[in-house]
Amino acid sequence: MKTVEAQAQVITSEDLLKHWQGHRALTRRLIEIFPEKDFFEFSIGGMRPFSKLVDELLAIAAPALKGIVNRDSQPYTEGSEKLIFKAQYLEKWDEATEEINKYWEQLSIEDFSEKFNLFGQYEFPIIQNILYFIDNEVHHRGQAYVYLRALNIEPPFFWER
Length: 161
Description:
Blueprint: H1 13-33, H2 36-41, H3 50-70, H4 86-104, E1 115-118, E2 122-125, H5 126-150
Antiparallel strand pairs: 1-2
Helix pairs in contact: 1-4, 1-5, 3-4, 3-5
């Protein structure tokens, strides 16, 4: 039998998922408005094109949450599937969103405080891993905002999630 200490809760699991999915919806909007060619080629200062950043986000979010739920610390793999059209990225993004929802339902509140060795490399409490997924996406979305502005494209407001 597992004993769990009572902890103060600032946000519910449902609200955290809603917050994360709000970020994901905004990132999806950025993918949509990016010009096809620039999505794959545009770069500033040696940063990766947005398609490569999205490859990373796709390789982390759903696969990592699946690993957490199944307690399977498979190594990190990125870009194993070669996507060549922006529409493919949007399709994969939507699939990942559904997977996140599916695996999220399998997390208990007690799981968040448990340590997990994500990808066999990052041993932290599960909540910290999930917050990293969100932070990493926000970071890369910020890069996409810079790209869009450099391309003279008005990005959506960051708070419109």
